[in-house]
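FAQ: What does a ligand-bound record look like?

Like this one, built around uridine-5'-diphosphate-xylopyranose:
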Amino acid sequence: MNITIVGTGYVGLVSGACFSEMGSTVTCVDVDEQKIENLKKGILPIYEPGLENLVIENHKEGLLRFTTSLESAAQECDVFFIAVGTPPDEDGSADLQYVLQVARNIGRVINSYTVIVDKSTVPVGTADKVKKVVQESLDKRGSDLEFDVVSNPEFLKEGAAVNDFLSPDRIIVGCDSPRAIKLMKRLYAPFSRNRDKLITMKVRDAEMTKYAVNSMLATKISFMNEMATICERLGVDVENVRKGIGSDQRIGYSFIYPGCGYGGSCFPKDVNALIRTSRDMGVEPHVLASVARRNSLQKEVLGNKIKERFGNDLCGKIFCIWGLSFKPGTDDMREAPAIVLINELVAAGATVHAYDPVAMTQAVGEFSPSFFQENRLRLFKTPYDALVDTDALVLVTEWKTFRQPAFQAMAKVMRQQILFDGRNLYDPGEVQEHGFEYHGIGRNFGGNLSGA
Ligand code: UDX
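The answer part, i.e. the structure of the complex:
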């Protein structure tokens, strides 16, 4: 099949590469000329495991093309995917201007029956708006071409997006037209070989499903973070509680890891957007509002623990931060807990030494230039260099490379042997055996819990 994907951001590029991998001919369109030129040369705008290879190979084979011209892409196109950004407005609702602009342009260039798919995460009712603007464009041309609008939300996790796309749990297709459903079934057939993964529903139901999934997952995390806070006060180890509840199949082990808060481009944005939508509908979203509030508080937890241990004035103290991206496997810094923590530490007078396996370039833009000019924030090439002369290590993002550090060697170069484990990555007993003082999230374990 011939597909056009508008927007070569995270979602668009992964979708394009994966559809071409499954045999479709894909044209990726973007207004950013530099980005398109780079993609033709195999230079990707984002880091995502496995993606570069797919892009380069399928581009070489002619299955994946890049262009800035929507018009040329529209020749012989069966399905258009809209995969442009929906940044949050000031009030938290999703800004649809890019989606609608693309829809308008699609209406100007289509030349046969077309299915237009919303892949971007968009509020309930967006498909109707897309339909309206496409129709307006066609009317202006005096065209009576037929088209359908489909909602097909993505469920890609950064760092695992290629695999998530190629082997999805399910494919949600929201569509009110049998003709379009038939086409979507054909398009996704290669992804459903073992079992039929396509779940069809009305357009608005699909749009809501996306928000409900992300809100549910965010709720699990915030719930667990609240449990951790309560456990800490009760002298209970949340890690045992996590294992205990995860074994209940109705709850499951995923997304119940307590930590220093969720970040990224989806959870914070989507929870806030649903809160906004809900209030617009006259429904006070009590649960969602608490999920968002707990997460804001959770991002402050590490800073608070550090101040409890060292005092509010951190002048003269140096902290080593391991992990800057919002989660492992990505260079994405959006809404990363490390941002809140580093700003907090620097504001309290501390100096920060930081290391991340891939996000350091991205990180530079997230902080005030004065942090770097005044050496309040220094980025290091290795995790061990970042530790030299520091008063504590703070683990913020649980990259695999941090799982089994050389504690003995670390202890020798640090000023004080103190560890704040923002992801409960380490075994507190083992860390203590190496002479470190351990502070986790909601942890109470045999022996000392210093500072608690
Ligand atoms: C998420 C959804 O999983 C995906 O389906 C959707 O399309 C986009 O949003 P992503 O943002 O890439 O994906 O990351 P995810 O792996 O879901 O993690 C989100 C955040 O939650 C991270 O900050 C992570 O550290 C945090 N998290 C996750 C926890 O704190 N505890 C957990 O148990 C799981």
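Follow-up question: can I read anything off the structure? Yes, for example: Residues 447-452 have pLDDT under 50 and may be disordered.
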